[in-house]
Amino acid sequence: MLFGGAMKRLGCISVKRGSGKSALDSMISAAREACARGDQIIIFPEGTRSAPGSAPSYKSGVSHLYQALQIPCVPVALNSGLLWPKRRFLRPPGVITVEILPVISAGLPRKQMFEKLVRDMEAACQRLADE
What we know:
Blueprint lengths: L1 H8 L11 H16 L24 H9 L6 E3 L19 E3 L9 H21 L1
Antiparallel strand pairs: 1-2
């Protein structure tokens, strides 16, 4: 509860997993308010870290936000999973590489945007893991 309250005060948008459409509607409403304030929205489309090399499970919420807000999406790939494994408290030192990918312009059909996002992100994450 302490962590969640702190994140909310920082302006983070909470997602009530398992609440279906009401969670999506709430997230879109909060994202609209953030955009109206000029805030940037950062979303991790997998929802959580995954082990390097594991099959990703991208959540469709990102494409719903994209469609509802009609704003571009700037995908960002990370290789943090190589250094910070899932379900590990300690974070050993190391260099995490961040790659900003080409913008996905507003206006694509939701499904097309989602497929492009997944394809581009997976290619970039694989490239980062191979380096």
